[in-house]
Write a structure and sequence with these properties.
CATH topology of the largest domain: FAD/NAD(P)-binding domain
Bound molecules: flavin-adenine dinucleotide, 1,4-dihydronicotinamide adenine dinucleotide
Number of strands: 22
Number of helices: 14
Distance between the termini: 66 Å
Shape: globular
Number of domains: 3
Largest sheet: 7 strands, mixed
CATH class of the largest domain: Alpha Beta
CATH superfamily of the largest domain: FAD/NAD(P)-binding domain
């Protein structure tokens, strides 16, 4: 079979690229080794984790917030089995949606493992047979897998990654999480909210390193309130699982004394690595960097100009929407368009409660780049809307250029921060100033007023709301 373009991997990078290629008139095929489409994000990532975050948040609110609102409940119980069943149904509906989109856009789906045999030919090893596909162009969108060092003895039973943590059906008494990154904090929140004792061991001195210091500190305060215990500045040296539990050995940085914790589960959440296993990259001479990521140029082309790579398998943030934008970018580049992608304006969200969201640069990055800036901050507790709903935790921080007033970064912790960040992204795309942001009318009473207030602060003006 011969195609204009063949895409390997059906995650948010691959399936979005396939749709755009087809829309642009290319005869398109997608290869996926699993039976369901959607990749990490839909099957074992974004969607299932958000489904469990929502269920556990409802439970937590019912247990801890409803009474304050005058809602009395007797016999409240978290039914993890039902939460998992609902999550599975959300996942299956979402994956079916991708299959429908492939059909609708006349994209051929080949189920099996794809391996390059030349720069114009792929083999797809299916369950019963192998198919050969010829192509003019190809897009590698093979994603990533969790990092599981040998010393952590990952056994998928007691020593687990996010994939298994999304399928536990009885509430664990205790869970130790290695890594206070996005996965550790999101899944740690799920379990802490339904009553699991959660301890997080993190090598760095703060959670979410790389994000703005103010928001990372603020979020840690909120997470402590739901009972998560943090061991910052500690490194895990070894993990051993048995049939019933896992023992984690760790030590404070620069000391030798080993501490031990035994828990029902140990969740390894120390990052993910690019996945290129058995892809045939060596056969066709496509290079990877020291972290195994496929090397691409500014047009996302590999060393073969007809073979592109996108998403988690290349450099940059491992985010679904980054993979999607790259999918659209390469489809349009192949068709002779001149697409544009500003990596600085790809937002990041952590779906804890309160939510954390960021776009643009942090104070630390601006200092390092020698760019002078000014900052405006507004605490959620000063906002009428936040008090009305008892969601007063968090803050919004707007960073603007000292002389031009252009918005350089916006960092938030608070209710609905995941959605609020889009105001900042949109304004920054149009290179708005903090004054522009402050002068736009924001509906009252809404959480968006905190953005206006923080922007006013950055322009040197005083708060106008209480
Ligand atoms: P993937 O989604 O990993 O898809 C790659 C696909 O390629 C897989 O289906 C794989 O089976 C297939 N494949 C690989 N090799 C081959 C081969 N040789 N032949 C055939 N098929 C192959 N990001 C967000 O933006 N928001 C979130 O809320 C979020 N939550 C997450 C929660 C968790 C628990 C995890 C683990 C990740 C989360 N992410 C989130 C990250 C997000 O899932 C990834 O950034 C995104 O899935 C990357 O998309 P991709 O298309 O590059 O690869
Ligand atoms: P991460 O890179 O976000 O965090 C890993 C953390 O583990 C780091 O803070 C690191 O210092 C720490 N660590 C590493 N080795 C350690 C050790 N030996 N002992 C103690 N701590 C150690 O990685 P994570 O959380 O696994 O997530 C992987 C990717 O998935 C991220 O890049 C993220 O972008 C993506 N993701 C995105 C989500 C979102 O957008 N909401 C949700 C979940 C995942």
């Amino acid at each position: 079979m011969k195609y204009d373009v063949v895409i390997i991997g059906s995650g948010p990078g691959g399936y979005v690229a396939a749709i755009r290629c087809s829309q642009l008139g290319m005869k398109t095929a997608i290869i996926e080794k699993y039976n369901t489409l959607g990749g990490t994000c839909l099957n074992v990532g974004c969607i299932p984790s958000k489904a469990l975050l929502d269920s556990s948040e409802h439970y937590h609110n019912a247990a801890h917030k409803f009474a304050d609102h005058g809602i009395q409940l007797k016999s409240l119980k978290a039914d993890l089995k039902q939460m998992i069943a609902r999550k599975d149904s959300v996942v299956s509906q979402t994956c079916d949606g991708v299959a429908y989109l492939m059909k609708k856009n006349k994209i051929d789906v080949h189920t099996g493992h794809g391996t390059f045999v030349s720069a114009n030919k792929l083999e797809v090893a299916g369950k019963d047979s192998t198919t050969e596909l010829e192509f003019d162009k190809a897009i590698i969108a093979t994603g990533s897998k969790p990092i599981t060092p040998a010393a952590f003895n990952y056994d998928k039973k007691r020593v687990i990654t996010s994939t298994e943590a999304l399928n536990i059906t009885s509430i664990p008494k205790k869970m130790v999480i290695i890594g206070a990154g996005v996965i550790g904090l999101e899944l740690g929140s799920v379990y802490a909210r339904i009553g699991t004792e959660v301890e997080v061991i993190e090598f760095q001195d703060r959670i979410l390193t790389g994000m703005d210091k103010d928001v990372s500190k603020d979020l840690q305060r909120s997470l402590k309130k739901i009972g998560i215990i943090f061991h910052l500045g500690h490194a895990v040296t070894q993990v051993k699982g048995t049939a019933k539990n896992a023992t984690i050995e760790f030590k404070k940085k620069d000391t030798e004394e080993i501490q031990k914790i035994t828990a029902d589960y140990c969740l390894i959440a120390i990052g993910r690595h690019a996945y290129t296993e058995n892809l045939g990259l060596e056969t066709i001479g496509v290079d990877t960097d020291d972290r195994g990521r496929i090397i691409v140029n500014d047009h996302l082309q590999t060393s073969h100009s007809n073979i592109y790579a996108i998403g988690d398998v290349i450099k940059g943030a491992m985010l679904a929407h980054k993979a999607e934008e790259e999918g659209i970018f390469v489809a349009e580049h192949m068709s002779g368009h001149k697409p544009h992608l500003d990596y600085n304006l790809i937002p990041g969200v952590v779906y804890t409660w309160p939510e954390l969201s960021v776009v643009g640069r942090t104070e630390e990055q601006l200092k390092e780049a020698g760019i002078e800036y000014k900052v405006g901050k507004f605490p959620m507790k000063a906002l009428g809307r936040a008090r009305a709903s008892t969601d007063t935790e968090g803050l919004i921080k707007v960073i603007a250029h000292k002389d031009t007033d252009e918005i350089l970064g916006v960092h938030m912790v608070g209710a609905r921060a995941a959605d609020l960040i889009m105001e900042a992204v949109a304004l920054m795309e149009f290179r708005a100033s903090a004054e522009d942001m402050a002068r736009i009318s924001h509906p009252h009473p809404t959480y968006t007023e905190a953005i206006k207030e923080a922007a006013l602060g950055a322009t040197g003006n005083r708060y106008i709301h209480i």
